[in-house]
Amino acid sequence: MDDSDLQVGDAISTSLLEAIEGSKLAIVVLSQNFAAFTLCLEELTKICQFMEYGPRILPVFYHVNPSDVRYQKGSFQDAFTKYEKSGRYKSEKVKQWRDALRKVASLSGWLAQDYK
Q1: What is the pLDDT along the chain (116 residues), one digit of tens a residue?
Q2: CATH number, domain at 46?
Q3: What is the bridge-based pairing of β-strands 26-30 and 110-111?
Q4: Which of 9, 43, 55, 81 is deepest in the core (most CB within 10 A)?
Q5: Does residue 43 have an active-site annotation?
């Protein structure tokens, strides 16, 4: 679910949070540019908070290696370096985003390149 009226930098809407909280599962598509968007990182953090128990998060790795996501290498490292250098985001917020990515990348998921 996405909110077409949501602009970059806006807070996640209440209806989106309610949808995440009320969902039975979440399919998370992780791409090379996923970490470049704070909205994606915020949504992922909320998904991890609401779906802490059980196999309810299903990751799809779209042209990205799960270990790059888990250990925040490559484009993920670049995005976090930018966030940390900017001073715009509190270190606790960045830590939450990193933890959420580690958690999801540690789950069994699908590599998109293995499917047509």
Answers
A1: 455 555 555 566 777 778 888 888 999 999 999 999 998 999 999 999 988 766 689 999 999 999 999 999 999 999 999 999 999 999 999 999 999 999 999 999 999 988 87
A2: 3.40.50.10140
A3: unpaired
A4: 43
A5: yes
